[in-house]
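note to self: the first set is below, dont mix up w the second
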Amino acid sequence: MCAVLGCDSFEIVNLYAAELPTSGSLDLATPSPAWEEGRREIERAVRGSDTKAVLLGYGVRSPAGPQRTQYQEQLHWLADLLTSSGHAPWTYGDRPSHPSRWQRIAHRHSPGSSVYDLAPELLQQHEGGSLRMGAGNVAIQPTGA
């Protein structure tokens, strides 16, 4: 992945900066400072002087309950941050998806090929500030756009 993105290393930061036992656990979580901590970690990484590319990889299903609004606000905030920092984000396939889903995308594209082999074909950079970022799979425009 790094070779396609033009970088030597990578760092993983999370929209929600707390460990969850299962993907459905966020549906049941109470409001948490982990959303704000996620913002701090993401902003530090995105605005870092050595950051050359941003590859989005997260689940696109909105959580249920009170966390739904937090998730959607986090995606809007992320869109604004990417625009203000000058980064046109990358995705594996045509929209963000959790890395655990990338093999499915690769298999649909070319059965038997690996995620890494198909990275030059499937990694897509999204220019212009519009990208399907999740939250019910709607296109989110940065606030200033």
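second set (the one i keep forgetting abt)
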Amino acid sequence: MNEEALRQEIIPNKVGTPLLKRVSHSYLPVSDLKRASEWYVQYLGLKKENPGGSILILGNGQWLFLLESKTKQNANFVTDHWNGNDYEMFSLTFETEDIINLHASLRQSGTYVESIEDQGSCGLQFKFKDPDGNKFNVWQDPLRS
């Protein structure tokens, strides 16, 4: 179907109906694909979808792509709109059903790991970084604790 035909067939969205279903997969910059994929498998328990390790599978089947970046960068950004001024913000929040063992595994890896915090109705949470400095949040649903 050509672009002109697509424009003519656009149907207005129903008010309040999301057109996006979910996040299918995410992309993360890494400096060394082999080293990064081994770390994600060993310390986070993810599964490799392909032998090269660039596609990892989370527990719910969602894909996480690790891509070598030409420049040393990570997925973090700085904001004044989260936890004070100049806060280094994480790009993803993962959910776990075993936050205690995950926290212990990450501490064992020697990477940056913050303490577990009880966020009340938002559950237990902590922040960590992978070896490339990508910062993440992880939480456990308080109804499953």
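remember for set 2: The mean pLDDT is 90.
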